[in-house]
TrEMBL record:
PANTHER family in alphabetical order: 30S RIBOSOMAL PROTEIN
Known role: Required for dimerization of active 70S ribosomes into 100S ribosomes in stationary phase; 100S ribosomes are translationally inactive and sometimes present during exponential growth.
Family: Belongs to the HPF/YfiA ribosome-associated protein family. Long HPF subfamily.
Protein name (record): Ribosome hibernation promoting factor
Domain Sigma 54 modulation/S30EA ribosomal protein C-terminal: 128-182
Keywords recorded for this protein, A-Z: Cytoplasm, Ribonucleoprotein, Ribosomal protein, Translation regulation
Gene3D superfamilies given in the database record: Ribosome hibernation promotion factor-like, Sigma 54 modulation/S30EA ribosomal protein, C-terminal domain
Assembly, per entry: Interacts with 100S ribosomes.
Amino acid sequence: MQYQITGKQIDIGEALQTHVKTCIDEVVGKYAGRPTDAGIVFSKSGHEYVCEAVIHLSTGLTAQAKGHDHEIYAAFDKCCAKMEKQLRRYKRRLKDHHRERPVESFGVSSYILASSEDGGDAEPETLQPMIIAEMQTKIPSLSVGEAVMQMELAGAPVLIFQNEKQGSGVNVVYRREDGNIGWIDPN
């Protein structure tokens, strides 16, 4: 597994890096199986240390957690505990524990559009939006249950995916204001 352990304006020592690798290996080995890479970032917010961790698994799942405390090791331990809880829930939700298939995905273009700077009161000169950035994004092929699970683990409000049961068409799952999950299936 590849690690990227960094600090934002903080010097990260060898002892902390060894502690992080040992704990992440233990948690991921216990619940996830085959991770591909992990990114851990330490920063300081006021008088507290903040630890943010993102782990990408071979199944296509991205798990992320954040912890903060007055001590840097305690901040990482809280983050690691949250990550362990997420991975434990992920493993528990899987129906077929023996299915070790990589998630198929296809590439699409995604764009970042400029927002209106005047607050939206004035009529724009043109209805054509200004494109600020263009990038390639991968859309995974998942079941609806896996898509909901991945959205919840990532803490995202919406997830776009290709329904693996139907094989075509883009589906969307999203968190509704009433706390339920919505699913858009374009049939």
